[in-house]
Recover the amino acids of this structure.
């Protein structure tokens, strides 16, 4: 782009250029802007026969020489870098560009001035000389900043450099025709209109008559993309006319980096303040530089009041002598390590625990780590103190020790029980319990030995060893063994550490000889009972008549049941003190089996009554019947927090047998409660609905329980038939068969619709023509 010399004065504009030097490969300077002298506070020097080292400090010259060498070896024609001088406390951003023109190489070096106020004012005298117009145009165009010269009265642009076209991504013609206002949004970030704010700046500068103003401005590129800029605007006179000189520096990356840095800092600060651990940043004298919120809360430190104070003189440290002394000692020890072993010593860490005591409160225990760090050797030494409240952990450890003592005492005093630990070589490492009575071995005879060495019976020893080996691999087993007329119940349990690895296993041995003898006798009675039960099921499955059912219940079933329960009671009275936990479990199995048989007998009696009893149809209150059914299940409803909702559209009065209809609703509600989901966060909800059909009344009991697979829809209404996935609930398989029989007596039908893990809906109809 050719610079129109008639538009503005070159020597005047030179004073507004940023720090810029043009030199050749022999380091001879061809041009130097006045801002270079201002930047480095060097005296004015004439260009004639001057070299680069006459204009810039040695530390800058050394950096430039390195970058020139680097640029010669690259395809790129431009490099940017940063340098910092500690002596002058000055940071600079430099850009080096190589220009080749007719085999002549020139280097253009520009600096970003940290403080733009250092730009020289218009009219400042200079003894610098520069070459022909073509070189001046290159200097003008390749500066880091965009330059726009505008008419002061109407703000229209009259000239701009190539850097301005790069910044705005627009042509010179578009910039001159539009002016800076055409490339500004309607509003600036402070809420002011761009036009009004620009006019305010013009009025301010006009009142001064001359000078410069620096401000932040948001521009729009030609494609509408906004960007942040730092603007130096000056009021100058050219040919007795006022002009507006805009020097525009795109600082979008700087603003973006600043925002990212702020964002990163906020994340770090949030992490620092919201961690569960207490954290302090200390200087080399132990004085507080930073404290996180957790430390302020738990250790009663007030950052604003305690900043700059030694940490051991603040909060709970000040009121607890022992922790304070521990910290001082750890601090001194860590500093000694740094002095003796160097800053980067891997041992530059101290760990200690402290117990703090509040006034009139329980004490708290902290586990602390004190670490040193420094960013570089020039930076001061700093320390990080981190601590975690381990009060509960210490308490848990104490509880573990107490529990271990308790468990050892229980094992030692449990008749016929021994517990042994063994390693991956199957060598016993610990033994507790009644091992002397059971095996006739002393502890010293067992520890360090294997089961192969302790049991003479080789086959039995190898069998037990095989189970022990599987336990080391992670499998738990329970099995019985017998030798020497004694029966043993053995359990192998893998023991994992916190990382999930198995380093040892547990062997629990119980003498169940007496229990086995009792079990054999009880099993005879159980077999007899099962035989009677099988006969009864076959009898019912073949659709035999139930006329003699009462006789079967009172004699063939109840008599053996009484024998079982009586024998169990006798065993409990005479042997309860001799039985261990396993024996009591076997007794519980027998009692539960008897109770299940009793429920089965009662259910069959109920089914018999439904089949044989007389019933009469009358007009009934439907809601009253439902109330009777829910009241009968009130304990289960309250226990499982069941919500029972009755539709307002349900038929109010119908013809039915009241007792049987109440039993029908009760059985369906009980089923819905029994098969509710196990999820503690899912409340069982039951809806009772009803409607009127042409010849029937239709009712539905809907739940949000486990649901039923489609292939089981018909099976569940058969006698003694239960779904194989009924879960842990134990039923007799008669309840829904009774429901079906009651519905059939009311000349209706019953069916189910269900979806697994969503719920079930049981529908049934009652005829309108029962009388």
């Amino acid at each position: 782009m050719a610079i129109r010399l008639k538009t503005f004065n070159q020597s005047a504009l030179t004073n507004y250029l940023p720090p810029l030097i043009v030199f050749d490969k022999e380091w001879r300077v061809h041009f130097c802007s006045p801002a270079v002298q201002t930047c480095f506070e060097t005296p004015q020097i004439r260009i004639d026969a001057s070299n680069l080292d006459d204009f810039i400090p040695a530390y800058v010259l050394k950096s430039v020489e390195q970058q020139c060498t680097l640029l010669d070896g690259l395809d790129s024609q431009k490099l940017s870098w940063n340098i910092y001088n500690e002596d002058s406390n000055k940071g600079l951003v430099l850009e080096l560009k190589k220009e080749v023109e007719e085999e002549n190489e020139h280097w253009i070096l520009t600096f970003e001035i940290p403080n733009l106020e250092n730009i020289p004012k218009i009219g400042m005298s200079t003894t610098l000389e520069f070459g022909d117009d073509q070189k001046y145009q290159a200097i003008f165009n390749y500066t880091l900043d965009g330059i726009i010269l505008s008419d002061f009265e109407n703000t229209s642009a009259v000239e701009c450099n190539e850097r301005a076209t790069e910044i705005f991504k627009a042509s010179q013609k578009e910039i001159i025709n539009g002016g800076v206002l055409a490339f500004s949004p309607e509003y600036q970030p402070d809420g002011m209109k761009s036009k009004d704010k620009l006019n305010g700046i013009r009025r301010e500068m006009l009142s001064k008559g001359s000078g410069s103003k620096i401000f932040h401005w948001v521009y729009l590129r030609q494609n509408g993309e906004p960007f942040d800029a730092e603007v130096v605007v000056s009021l100058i006179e050219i040919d007795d006319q006022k002009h507006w000189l805009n020097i525009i520096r795109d600082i979008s990356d700087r603003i973006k980096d600043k925002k990212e840095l702020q964002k990163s800092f906020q994340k770090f600060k949030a992490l620092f303040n919201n961690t569960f651990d207490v954290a302090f940043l200390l200087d080399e004298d132990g004085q507080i530089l930073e404290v996180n919120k957790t430390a302020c809360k738990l250790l009663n430190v007030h950052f604003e009041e305690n900043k700059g104070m030694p940490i051991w003189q603040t909060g709970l440290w000040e009121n607890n002598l022992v922790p304070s002394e521990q910290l001082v000692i750890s601090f001194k020890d860590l500093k000694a390590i740094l002095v003796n072993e160097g800053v980067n010593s891997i041992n530059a860490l101290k760990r200690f625990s402290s117990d703090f005591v509040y006034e009139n409160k329980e004490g708290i225990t902290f586990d602390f780590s004190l670490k040193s760090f420094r960013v570089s050797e020039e930076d001061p030494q700093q320390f990080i103190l981190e601590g975690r409240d381990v009060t509960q952990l210490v308490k848990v450890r104490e509880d573990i020790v107490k529990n271990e003592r308790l468990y050892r005492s229980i094992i030692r005093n449990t008749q016929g029980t021994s517990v042994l630990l063994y390693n991956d070589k199957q060598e016993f490492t610990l033994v507790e319990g009644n091992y002397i009575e059971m095996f006739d071995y002393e502890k010293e005879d067992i520890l360090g030995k294997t089961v192969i060495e302790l049991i003479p019976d080789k086959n039995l020893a190898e069998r037990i060893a095989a189970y022990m080996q599987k336990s080391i691999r992670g499998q738990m087993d329970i099995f019985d063994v017998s030798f020497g007329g004694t029966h043993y119940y053995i359990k192998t349990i893998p023991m994992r550490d916190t990382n999930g690895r198995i380093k040892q296993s547990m062997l629990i041995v119980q003498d169940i000889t007496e229990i086995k003898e009792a079990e054999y006798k009880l099993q005879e009675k159980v077999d007899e009972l099962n035989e009677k039960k099988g006969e009864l099921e076959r009898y019912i499955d073949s659709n035999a008549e139930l006329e003699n059912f009462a006789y079967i219940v009172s004699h063939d079933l109840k008599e053996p049941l009484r024998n079982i329960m009586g024998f169990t009671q006798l065993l409990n009275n005479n042997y309860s003190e001799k039985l261990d936990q396993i024996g009591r479990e076997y007794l519980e199995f027998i009692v539960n089996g008897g109770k299940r048989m009793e429920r089965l007998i009662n259910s069959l009696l109920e089914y018999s009554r439904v089949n044989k009893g007389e019933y009469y149809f009358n007009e009934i209150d439907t809601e009253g019947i439902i109330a009777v059914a829910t009241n009968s299940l009130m304990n289960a409803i309250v226990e499982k927090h069941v919500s029972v909702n009755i539709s307002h559209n349900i038929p109010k009065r119908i013809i039915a047998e009241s007792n049987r209809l109440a039993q029908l609703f009760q059985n369906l509600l009980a089923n819905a409660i029994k098969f509710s989901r196990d999820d503690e966060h899912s409340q069982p909800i039951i809806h009772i609905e009803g409607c009127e059909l042409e010849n029937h009344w239709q009712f539905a009991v809907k739940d949000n329980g486990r649901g039923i697979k489609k292939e089981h829809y018909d099976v569940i209404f058969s006698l003694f038939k239960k779904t194989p996935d009924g879960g842990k609930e134990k039923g007799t398989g008669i309840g829904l068969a009774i429901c079906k029989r009651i519905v059939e007596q009311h000349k209706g039908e019953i069916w189910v619709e269900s979806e697994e893990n969503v719920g079930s809906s049981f529908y049934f109809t009652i005829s309108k023509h029962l009388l």
